[in-house]
Amino acid sequence: MKSYRIGVLTSGGDCPGLNAAIRAVVCAAGLLGWEVYGFIDGFEGLISPVRYQILHEEDTQGIISLGGTILGTTNRGRFTTKTGIGEVKRLPGHLIDEVKETLEGLGIGALICIGGDGSLTAAQQLYESGVPIVGVPKTIDNDLSATDYTFGFYSAVEYVCRSLDRLRTTAASHRRVMVVEVMGRYTGWIALYGGLSGGANLILIPEIPFEYSKIAYQVRKRIAEGNFQTMIVVAEGAHPKDGQYYVVEEGKSATAEIRLGGISRHLEKVIHLMTGQEVRAVILGHLQRGGEPTAFDRNLGMMFGAAAVGLVREKRFGYMVSYREGKIGAVLIQEAIRELKKVDVNCPEIKTARAMGISFGEE
Amino acid sequence: MKSYRIGVLTSGGDCPGLNAAIRAVVCAAGLLGWEVYGFIDGFEGLISPVRYQILHEEDTQGIISLGGTILGTTNRGRFTTKTGIGEVKRLPGHLIDEVKETLEGLGIGALICIGGDGSLTAAQQLYESGVPIVGVPKTIDNDLSATDYTFGFYSAVEYVCRSLDRLRTTAASHRRVMVVEVMGRYTGWIALYGGLSGGANLILIPEIPFEYSKIAYQVRKRIAEGNFQTMIVVAEGAHPKDGQYYVVEEGKSATAEIRLGGISRHLEKVIHLMTGQEVRAVILGHLQRGGEPTAFDRNLGMMFGAAAVGLVREKRFGYMVSYREGKIGAVLIQEAIRELKKVDVNCPEIKTARAMGISFGEE
Amino acid sequence: MKSYRIGVLTSGGDCPGLNAAIRAVVCAAGLLGWEVYGFIDGFEGLISPVRYQILHEEDTQGIISLGGTILGTTNRGRFTTKTGIGEVKRLPGHLIDEVKETLEGLGIGALICIGGDGSLTAAQQLYESGVPIVGVPKTIDNDLSATDYTFGFYSAVEYVCRSLDRLRTTAASHRRVMVVEVMGRYTGWIALYGGLSGGANLILIPEIPFEYSKIAYQVRKRIAEGNFQTMIVVAEGAHPKDGQYYVVEEGKSATAEIRLGGISRHLEKVIHLMTGQEVRAVILGHLQRGGEPTAFDRNLGMMFGAAAVGLVREKRFGYMVSYREGKIGAVLIQEAIRELKKVDVNCPEIKTARAMGISFGEE
Amino acid sequence: MKSYRIGVLTSGGDCPGLNAAIRAVVCAAGLLGWEVYGFIDGFEGLISPVRYQILHEEDTQGIISLGGTILGTTNRGRFTTKTGIGEVKRLPGHLIDEVKETLEGLGIGALICIGGDGSLTAAQQLYESGVPIVGVPKTIDNDLSATDYTFGFYSAVEYVCRSLDRLRTTAASHRRVMVVEVMGRYTGWIALYGGLSGGANLILIPEIPFEYSKIAYQVRKRIAEGNFQTMIVVAEGAHPKDGQYYVVEEGKSATAEIRLGGISRHLEKVIHLMTGQEVRAVILGHLQRGGEPTAFDRNLGMMFGAAAVGLVREKRFGYMVSYREGKIGAVLIQEAIRELKKVDVNCPEIKTARAMGISFGEE
C-alpha cells in the first residue's frame, strides 16, 4: 500500500517540457512510495465533475519527448485570476472549499501546480486558504523574475531560430525583406534569443520602442552594402516610440492598425512604402508552442518536477521551485508572481547584437 | 579549354531542390568538358545589365542541402508572361533580341531554364524565336500535368506534416479546433498529402467545395466520440459550394471576407460560431517554401538537372524533362504548359482518406 | 454490437510507418463497423499465452508520427521460416492449429499480417492451411519485387541523407575521407538513394562489386582537383570484385576481415593505407530504423492499411497489398515472396549518379 | 582604408558554433572599421605556405547555421602541445618565430584563437613569446573549468537526446536493451545531459565507475516491473570499478576488451550474458560533432566572438573569454587550461536523475 498520495496538475497555456515535469513528479514520488493523482484540465479537474487519473511510472514512459501536456490544460475558466496587467480577481470561496473537499475526499496530502503567472496567483490564494500547495513555474515567454529560465522558452527560441533559417534562403533568393512575428506581448526574450541565433538583422522588442525611419535606414544601408535581403524579427508587443507617427490612411492611426492586424502586417506595409522593397510578413503563432521540447527544456522540466516533490517532502508549501545561476532552489510563490522580468538592455545578448551591428530600430 | 558552353537560370518562386538541380547541371556538364554560366535572378540576368557567374563543381559542393537558389530568382519583372489564369502575354521583340545577343556574345550554345508554368511559357516563346532552350519544371504545388512530381512539393508536404505534429499536441492539451492554411491556390495537392500524413481530420481543397454544416457536423461528431481536438487542413484556394451561404455580418458576404482575410481566418470565426469550440487559425505561408529539401526532392532535382544536360547533348531543344511512373523522360514545353493538374478525386490518397473517415467537408 | 471482428499484427524488424498502417486498419475497419484485435509481438501473440488488445480509433490518435509499432514485434521465435537465403522452414502443424484455435475462439474472421519476407512466408503457410489472411509488405530495405516501395524505406533514406549533411561539414573542416555504412545486406537501395541525396562522392553497393584501386583513384583525383573531403556511402553488404585482393595482414584475408569487423572499418584501414588520408568510419546502424516516419511513409502506410481492410472486405485472402506506378493494388503473397528486388544498374538514380561523376568503385 | 587588422583561426576538433563565433568576430571587428584575416587550418595557416582569406561581413552571411568551420581546422600537426593527459610539449622556437614573422609581415595587430585545451596551450606559449593573442574556448565535451559552457556541447547533447528518441521506439517494439555510446573520454557531461533528456534508464560516466551486477540488476528490475526495454547511455570513457571483474574469455581481461572494441560492444556482450536479454550497441561517434548548432550554441558562439574582439580592443592579450552564471567575462588563458572540469556528483542533473530512479550503475 502506498504511504502517501499527492496531486499534480498543469494550468495555463501549454508549452514543451510540461510532460517531462509530470514524468519527474511521478518517478520521484514513486521512488518515495507515494501515489500520484493527475488532475485533468488544470484546476477544473478538482471541481465537479472531478476528473483525474492515477499516474504510474509506466504511463509516463516516452512522454518526455511529447509536446503539450497529457493532463490537459486551460487558460480560461473558473480559476482565472488575472484579467489584465496588474488586476487580480479573488477566487470565490465556494470554489476554494470545493477544491479542499476534493483533496480531502481523495486523501491527497499535497498538490503540485505547474503553471504560469495567472495559475500561480490562483495557487497562492488556495495556499492562503489552507491548501498544501507547491508551485512549478511555466511560461514560454521566460518573463518570470523569480527564475532565470522556465521550460518551453528554449524550445520556442529553437523554433524561431530554425524558422529564420528556412526563411533566409527564400529572402536571399528573392531579395526580400522578411518580417517575422514571434511571441512576446510584454517582453522580448523570444525575439532577442531567437533573432540573434537565427541571424536577424533587426530585432524589435517591447523594451526598446522603434523608430520607422531607423528601420528603413537599416534596410537601405544593407542594400547599399550589397546585402539584398533583410531579416527582421519582431515581438508581437513591439511598438513605435511615443510621438512616432506614421500616416497610414486618412482617419486611421498606426496604433489602431497594429492592434487590429498585428505588428508584422503593419510593418510589411510601412517598410514597403518607405523603401520600395518587396516585404513579406510571417507570423509564427501557435507553431512556437508545440513540438518536441529541446534537451535543455526536458532537463529543466525534470529538475523542476523532481525538486517539487522534494518541497512536498519537506512540507515547504507556498513555495515554488526556481532555477538561478545553474542551481535549483525555491522561492515563495507570493514573491514570484509579483514582477515581470523584462529584457535588460545591458544583458550579454543585447551587447553582442549591438557589437555585431544588429539594429533594435532605434539607432 | 572547354569545348562547349551552356547557361542555366532559375526563374519564378523559389523552392527546395533548385540547388540540387543546379549542382547536377554543373557536374554533368563538367564531366562532358563543358563550361556552365549561371545567370542571376532568372531571365533578368540575360538582359542589360547582364549578370552571371561561371559555375565550377567546387562552387556547388554542399549546396544540395540548401533551400532557395544560389542564382537568385524572381517572379516579377520584364519576362512575366502569365498575368492571370489563361491569359498569356507575348514577350516584346526587343527583349528576345537582347537575350539572343547576350547568349551569342558569351558564346553560349544552349540555355537550361528551371522554372514554373510562367517561366516555361517565356522559355517557349524564346525557343520559338530561335533560342536553343531546354526546360526543367519547378512548381512547389505539383500542379503540372506533364510530370508526376516536381521537386519542392514533397519538402512542402513534409513541412506541413511536421507542423501538424507540432500543433496536434497543443490542440489536444487545450481541446481546440486547429485550422491550418497551406499553399494551393488552384489545387489541393499539398493539403491532401500534408493533411493525410499529418493526421488531419478534415481536409479542404479547391477541387472539392465544402459545406459549412458538414464541417460543423464533423467537429461535433468527434466531440461526441470523445475526440476533443480536431485538426483541419485547408488549401488557400478552398471555398464553399456555390449557393452555400453563411451570413457573416450585415452587408458583408462570405466570399468577400475570404478574399480579404483568407480562408483560415474565415473558418476560425465560422466554426467557433457554429460549434462553440475554441478555434485557432495558423497560416504556414512562406515557411513552406524554405528549408532543406527532403531526400526525395534532392534526388528528383538531380535527376532533372542531369537529364536536362542530356537533352542539350542530344540537341532536343524546346523540350522539358519530366518524371513519370518512376522514369525520367522529356515532353515538349509547349504541351507541358497547357494544363493544370488537379487532384483526381479517385486517387489512392483520397480513397484512403475516405476509407479512414477523414472528411472533405462535403459528407 | 460490432458485426465483424478482424485481427492485426506486426512481425519482423520494426520500421517507421507501421503505426500509420495500424491506424489506417483501425479507422477503416471502424468505419465499416468492425472490431479490431491487435495481437502483441507478432504471431507470438496468437499462441499461448495469447496476448492482444482491442484497438479503438482513439487509441491510435497521434501514433502516426511514432516510430516502431505499438503492438510490438519480433524477428525471432517460433514462427521463423527463413533461416538463410533461399532456405524455407515449414511451420510445425501444432503451431498452425493453435493459431486457428485462437482466431476461432475469439471469433476473428480475418487476420491482417504486416511483415517482411520471412513473416509473409509464415503468413502464406498459414493461408495454405486455411487461415483467412491478408498481407501488408514491410521491408526497410525496399527489396520486395512485388511493390515499387515499402514504408520505412524513405524514412531510412532521409536519415542517411541528413547524417551525410552532418558529417560533410566535419569532413570538410578536417579534410577527411568519411566512410558511412548503411543498411543493405543484399541490396543497395538505401545506399543509392541516401548517398545520392546526401552528396556522396562514392557509393558502394552489393550489386556493383568494387575495386580498391578505383576507390583510391577517386580520392586522389578529388584532392588533385582541390576537393579535400570525400564522402563514401557503403551498404553493409558491399564487397570487392572476385579475385580482388588486398593483403590485410599475414594469415588474414580481406573477406574474413570484412565479415568480422564490417565493411566500413575495413575500408577505413585500406583507404588510409592506399592514400595516406585521414579516414573515419561511421556506422549508422539501428538509428536508421527508428524515428518519425516521413510524410511519404506515413501516407504509404495508411494506403496499405486501408487497402488491406478492403481486401478483407472482398475476401481476397492470400493476397498482399502493393504499390506500383502510383497505384495501390494486390498480388498473391505466394508470388510476392519469391524474388529479391535488386538495384537495376540502368535505373535513373544510377544513371544520374554516373552522369554527375559519382563513382561506384568500379570505374 | 581600414585602420587595424586582426587575424582569426579555429584549431582542434571541429564543433557546431565555430562559424557563429567567426561571424561575430568579423561583424564586431567590421563595425570598428577593422580588417579580419582568417587563417586556414588553424595555426598551420600561419606558417609556410601561409594561407588565409580576408573575411567580409557578406562572406559570413548564413554561416551561423552551418556545422564545422569555414576556415578549416586540424587536431594534428606541428602545433600539437598535448600528447597525453598532463604532458605538455614546448613549441619549437623556429615555429614561434615564423608565426611572428607572418603576423608582422601582414600587419596583423592581434590574433584571435578559437580552440580547445591543446590549442589554447599553444596559444599561451605564443603569447609568452610576445604574440598578441586572445582565446575563445571550444570543447564539445564541456570540460573546461574556466567556463560554465562552451559552444558545441549543447548541440551534441541535443543530438544524443534525439537519437535516444529514435532508438527508444525500436527498443520498445522489440523489448531490447540499447547501449548507446556517446563522447566523453574523461568526463560524463554529454552522457549525463543527453541521457537525462533522452529518457535513459542508466547513465554510465567516467566519474562514477560502475558495477556489472548493478547494471544487470536494473535491467531485471525493470522487466519485473513490466518495462521491457532499457535505455543505457554510456560515455566512451566509462569503466568498471577497480577490482570489478568480469571473466570475458580465458586469457582476456575486461579492460583489454574495452580498450580494443569499445565500452558499448563490451557491455552489449556482458549484459546479454548476465540477463539473457537482446542487447544492441549503437555508437554515435562523429555524428555528434556535426550538424547545425542549436540556438544556444549559436548565441554562445556569437557572444564569445564579439567579446574576443572587445578583449583585443582593450589589449587584454593572454586572456580568454568565458561564460559564468549568465555573464560573459575573461580569464587568463594560463589559468583556464590548468584543470579538467569533471561532473560534480552533487549537481542538480545528477540529483534529479537519482531522485527519479535513474541508475549510475553503482546502486
Question: What can you see in these coordinates?
Answer:
The structure is a homotetramer of 363-residue chains. Chain A is of the alpha/beta class and 363 residues long. Helix content of chain A is 37%, strand content 17%. Chain A is built from 11 helices and 11 strands. In chain A, the strands form 3 sheets. Chain A has a 5-stranded mixed sheet, sandwiched between helices. Chain A has helices spanning 18-31, 93-106, 117-128, 153-174, 189-197, 212-224, 254-261, 263-275, 295-313, 333-336, 348-355; strands spanning 4-11, 34-39, 52-55, 110-115, 133-137, 177-182, 202-204, 230-235, 279-283, 319-324, 327-332. In chain A, helix 1 links the parallel strand 1 (4-11) and strand 2. The longest helix of chain A has 22 residues, at 153-174. Chains A and D meet through helix 1, helix 4, helix 5, helix 9 and helix 11 of A and helix 1, helix 4, helix 5, helix 9 and helix 11 of D.
